[in-house]
Amino acid sequence: xxxxxxxxxxxxxxxxxxxxxxxxxxxxxxxxxxxxxxxxxxxxxxxxxxxxxxxxxxxxxxxxxxxxxxxxxxxxxxxxxxxxxxxxxxxxxxxxxxxxxxxxxxxxxxxxxxxxxxxxxxxxxxxxxxxxxxxxxxxxxxxxxxxxxxxxxxxxxxxxxxxxxxxxxx
Length: 170
Description:
It is a single chain. The protein is an alpha+beta fold. The chain has one domain (about 1-170). Helix content is about 55%, strand content about 20%. The chain has five helices and four strands. The protein has helices at about 1-10, 50-75, 80-85, 90-115, 135-165, and strands at about 15-20, 25-35, 115-120, 125-130. A hairpin with a 2-residue loop joins strand 3 and strand 4 (about 125-130). The model has no long low-confidence stretch (mean pLDDT about 90).
């Protein structure tokens, strides 16, 4: 129970990387932080909202379900994959999820939880990259990038094999 309370106590905190470079005196400072944003940087008015996490999860779920079913098929549990692969609506949903759902899920969730900034002053340049600690949003983004990246990597490997004469990859 205390683990759940500890995780909830950090909701709304920021994971940040702050770079500060100056000319007089010549200096460069790179800092990593967990908690509040560095001084002088305001939190955006739009923050993590439950609805964007749920929409993102709904956008990636059909493709992830098909990938999990295909993985289970490889280890001998073929009932779920047989059912999904014989259903035209399931294949259509997974295809739309891959080409539309994954980019939409990444975009709407990152838009809500990231803070990017760049400032120039008198002899000073500052930059900030920060992500709000919102577990649902982070899980959606990581899952979308991971599964989408694995699929694109698979396509790239097949293309490379096909170009190099492996006819079964074409």
